[in-house]
Here is the input.
Amino acid sequence: MEFIDVVKSRRSIRTYDSKEVEDEKINYVLECARLAPSWINRQCWSFIVVKDKKTIKILSKTTIINRWLRKVPCIIVACGDPKLSGTHNGIEYFTVDVAIAMEHLILAATDMGLSSCWIGGFNEKKVKEALGMPKGIRVVALTPLGYLAKKRRILGGIIKIITRSKKRRSLDEIIHYDKW
Ligand SMILES: Cc1cc2nc3c(=O)[nH]c(=O)nc-3n(C[C@H](O)[C@H](O)[C@H](O)COP(=O)(O)O)c2cc1C
Here is the structure.
Protein backbone atom coordinates (compact mmCIF):
# COMPACT_ATOMS: atom_id res chain seq x y z
CA MET A 1 0.00 0.00 0.00
CA GLU A 2 1.05 3.61 -0.56
CA PHE A 3 1.82 5.27 2.80
CA ILE A 4 -1.11 7.70 2.51
CA ASP A 5 -3.46 4.75 1.91
CA VAL A 6 -2.14 3.00 5.03
CA VAL A 7 -2.78 6.15 7.08
CA LYS A 8 -6.23 6.66 5.58
CA SER A 9 -7.37 3.07 5.96
CA ARG A 10 -6.32 2.72 9.61
CA ARG A 11 -9.29 3.04 11.91
CA SER A 12 -10.24 1.78 15.34
CA ILE A 13 -11.86 -1.63 14.98
CA ARG A 14 -13.88 -3.13 17.82
CA THR A 15 -15.31 -6.26 16.22
CA TYR A 16 -12.90 -9.05 15.34
CA ASP A 17 -13.03 -12.38 13.57
CA SER A 18 -11.83 -15.37 15.62
CA LYS A 19 -9.14 -16.14 12.96
CA GLU A 20 -5.66 -16.28 14.51
CA VAL A 21 -3.05 -13.76 13.42
CA GLU A 22 -0.08 -15.34 11.62
CA ASP A 23 3.19 -15.23 13.61
CA GLU A 24 5.01 -13.71 10.60
CA LYS A 25 2.63 -10.74 10.68
CA ILE A 26 3.04 -10.32 14.43
CA ASN A 27 6.83 -10.44 14.06
CA TYR A 28 6.66 -7.90 11.21
CA VAL A 29 4.67 -5.35 13.24
CA LEU A 30 6.95 -5.85 16.26
CA GLU A 31 9.98 -5.24 14.05
CA CYS A 32 8.40 -1.97 12.84
CA ALA A 33 7.85 -0.93 16.48
CA ARG A 34 11.46 -1.81 17.33
CA LEU A 35 12.77 0.61 14.70
CA ALA A 36 10.95 3.65 16.17
CA PRO A 37 12.88 6.72 17.37
CA SER A 38 13.14 7.40 21.11
CA TRP A 39 14.51 9.77 23.75
CA ILE A 40 18.36 9.62 23.42
CA ASN A 41 17.73 6.29 21.66
CA ARG A 42 16.99 4.71 25.05
CA GLN A 43 14.35 2.38 23.54
CA CYS A 44 12.58 2.12 26.86
CA TRP A 45 9.76 -0.04 25.45
CA SER A 46 8.69 -3.66 25.88
CA PHE A 47 5.77 -5.40 24.22
CA ILE A 48 3.79 -8.32 25.57
CA VAL A 49 2.09 -10.45 22.91
CA VAL A 50 -0.98 -12.06 24.48
CA LYS A 51 -2.61 -14.91 22.57
CA ASP A 52 -3.72 -17.08 25.49
CA LYS A 53 -7.53 -16.97 25.51
CA LYS A 54 -7.83 -17.01 29.31
CA THR A 55 -5.40 -14.09 29.64
CA ILE A 56 -7.25 -12.15 26.92
CA LYS A 57 -10.47 -12.62 28.89
CA ILE A 58 -8.78 -11.41 32.08
CA LEU A 59 -7.35 -8.38 30.24
CA SER A 60 -10.78 -7.49 28.83
CA LYS A 61 -12.08 -7.34 32.40
CA THR A 62 -9.33 -4.91 33.40
CA THR A 63 -10.67 -2.36 30.95
CA ILE A 64 -13.36 0.19 31.64
CA ILE A 65 -15.39 0.36 28.44
CA ASN A 66 -13.55 -2.26 26.43
CA ARG A 67 -15.16 -5.58 27.37
CA TRP A 68 -15.43 -6.31 23.64
CA LEU A 69 -11.71 -7.18 23.83
CA ARG A 70 -12.64 -10.63 25.19
CA LYS A 71 -13.35 -11.79 21.63
CA VAL A 72 -10.10 -10.72 19.97
CA PRO A 73 -7.44 -13.28 18.93
CA CYS A 74 -4.40 -11.28 20.08
CA ILE A 75 -3.58 -8.27 22.26
CA ILE A 76 -0.33 -6.33 22.21
CA VAL A 77 0.45 -4.60 25.50
CA ALA A 78 2.89 -1.71 25.05
CA CYS A 79 4.98 -0.96 28.14
CA GLY A 80 7.64 1.59 29.03
CA ASP A 81 10.40 1.87 31.59
CA PRO A 82 10.39 5.49 32.90
CA LYS A 83 13.86 5.01 34.43
CA LEU A 84 15.29 4.07 31.03
CA SER A 85 13.77 7.11 29.32
CA GLY A 86 13.95 10.74 30.48
CA THR A 87 11.96 13.80 31.54
CA HIS A 88 12.30 17.22 29.91
CA ASN A 89 10.05 20.31 30.10
CA GLY A 90 7.86 18.27 32.41
CA ILE A 91 7.25 15.67 29.72
CA GLU A 92 7.87 12.08 30.74
CA TYR A 93 9.32 10.75 27.52
CA PHE A 94 8.53 7.08 28.11
CA THR A 95 4.93 7.83 27.11
CA VAL A 96 6.09 9.56 23.92
CA ASP A 97 8.61 6.80 23.07
CA VAL A 98 6.11 4.01 23.56
CA ALA A 99 3.38 5.92 21.71
CA ILE A 100 5.60 6.42 18.66
CA ALA A 101 6.58 2.74 18.64
CA MET A 102 2.94 1.73 19.06
CA GLU A 103 1.87 3.87 16.12
CA HIS A 104 4.60 2.26 13.99
CA LEU A 105 3.13 -1.09 15.03
CA ILE A 106 -0.44 -0.05 14.30
CA LEU A 107 0.34 1.37 10.85
CA ALA A 108 2.40 -1.73 10.01
CA ALA A 109 -0.57 -3.85 11.08
CA THR A 110 -2.86 -1.86 8.77
CA ASP A 111 -0.41 -2.44 5.93
CA MET A 112 -0.60 -6.20 6.66
CA GLY A 113 -4.40 -6.13 6.44
CA LEU A 114 -4.80 -6.38 10.22
CA SER A 115 -7.20 -4.39 12.37
CA SER A 116 -6.27 -2.66 15.60
CA CYS A 117 -7.59 -0.17 18.16
CA TRP A 118 -5.55 1.99 20.48
CA ILE A 119 -6.77 1.27 24.02
CA GLY A 120 -6.14 3.74 26.83
CA GLY A 121 -9.18 2.82 28.92
CA PHE A 122 -7.64 0.14 31.12
CA ASN A 123 -6.86 -0.28 34.80
CA GLU A 124 -3.07 -0.34 34.86
CA LYS A 125 -2.77 -2.05 38.24
CA LYS A 126 -5.00 -4.90 37.11
CA VAL A 127 -3.27 -5.26 33.73
CA LYS A 128 0.11 -5.46 35.46
CA GLU A 129 -1.16 -8.05 37.91
CA ALA A 130 -2.67 -10.16 35.12
CA LEU A 131 0.61 -10.15 33.19
CA GLY A 132 3.02 -10.48 36.13
CA MET A 133 4.81 -7.27 35.21
CA PRO A 134 7.69 -5.81 37.28
CA LYS A 135 6.94 -2.89 39.62
CA GLY A 136 8.72 -0.04 37.77
CA ILE A 137 7.38 -0.83 34.31
CA ARG A 138 4.36 1.18 33.11
CA VAL A 139 1.60 0.15 30.73
CA VAL A 140 1.11 2.87 28.12
CA ALA A 141 -1.39 1.29 25.72
CA LEU A 142 -2.98 -1.89 24.48
CA THR A 143 -4.14 -2.83 21.03
CA PRO A 144 -5.96 -5.86 19.74
CA LEU A 145 -4.63 -7.33 16.52
CA GLY A 146 -6.77 -9.41 14.22
CA TYR A 147 -9.04 -9.53 11.24
CA LEU A 148 -12.16 -7.43 10.85
CA ALA A 149 -15.31 -9.44 11.64
CA LYS A 150 -17.69 -9.85 8.74
CA LYS A 151 -20.60 -9.36 11.08
CA ARG A 152 -20.52 -6.01 12.90
CA ARG A 153 -21.57 -5.75 16.53
CA ILE A 154 -23.73 -2.97 17.92
CA LEU A 155 -21.23 -1.81 20.59
CA GLY A 156 -18.53 -0.97 18.03
CA GLY A 157 -21.05 1.15 16.12
CA ILE A 158 -22.14 3.03 19.25
CA ILE A 159 -18.53 3.88 20.25
CA LYS A 160 -17.89 5.04 16.70
CA ILE A 161 -20.85 7.42 16.87
CA ILE A 162 -19.81 8.77 20.31
CA THR A 163 -16.22 9.39 19.22
CA ARG A 164 -17.24 10.67 15.73
CA SER A 165 -14.29 8.58 14.67
CA LYS A 166 -14.06 9.72 11.06
CA LYS A 167 -14.15 13.42 11.87
CA ARG A 168 -10.87 15.33 11.92
CA ARG A 169 -10.15 19.02 12.52
CA SER A 170 -9.22 20.83 9.33
CA LEU A 171 -5.65 21.89 8.52
CA ASP A 172 -6.78 25.55 8.87
CA GLU A 173 -7.66 24.88 12.50
CA ILE A 174 -4.44 23.15 13.51
CA ILE A 175 -1.59 24.67 11.47
CA HIS A 176 0.14 27.96 12.20
CA TYR A 177 2.80 29.42 9.95
CA ASP A 178 5.75 31.30 11.48
CA LYS A 179 3.73 32.38 14.58
CA TRP A 180 0.82 30.97 16.67
C1 LIG B 1 -4.62 7.54 23.56
C2 LIG B 1 -5.82 6.87 22.98
C3 LIG B 1 -6.63 6.09 23.80
C4 LIG B 1 -7.77 5.44 23.27
N1 LIG B 1 -8.51 4.63 24.08
C5 LIG B 1 -9.55 3.94 23.55
C6 LIG B 1 -10.26 3.01 24.36
O1 LIG B 1 -9.98 2.79 25.53
N2 LIG B 1 -11.29 2.32 23.78
C7 LIG B 1 -11.65 2.50 22.47
O2 LIG B 1 -12.57 1.84 22.02
N3 LIG B 1 -10.98 3.38 21.68
C8 LIG B 1 -9.94 4.08 22.18
N4 LIG B 1 -9.21 4.95 21.39
C9 LIG B 1 -9.58 5.10 19.97
C10 LIG B 1 -10.19 6.48 19.66
O3 LIG B 1 -11.51 6.55 20.15
C11 LIG B 1 -10.15 6.67 18.14
O4 LIG B 1 -8.80 6.66 17.72
C12 LIG B 1 -10.79 7.99 17.68
O5 LIG B 1 -12.16 7.99 17.99
C13 LIG B 1 -10.63 8.18 16.17
O6 LIG B 1 -11.19 7.08 15.47
P1 LIG B 1 -10.33 6.21 14.44
O7 LIG B 1 -9.18 5.60 15.25
O8 LIG B 1 -11.27 5.14 13.93
O9 LIG B 1 -9.83 7.10 13.36
C14 LIG B 1 -8.10 5.60 21.90
C15 LIG B 1 -7.25 6.37 21.08
C16 LIG B 1 -6.13 6.98 21.59
C17 LIG B 1 -5.22 7.75 20.68
Notes: The radius of gyration is 17 Å. Residues 11-12, 14, 66, 117-121, 159, 163, 165 surround flavin mononucleotide (CB under 6 Å).
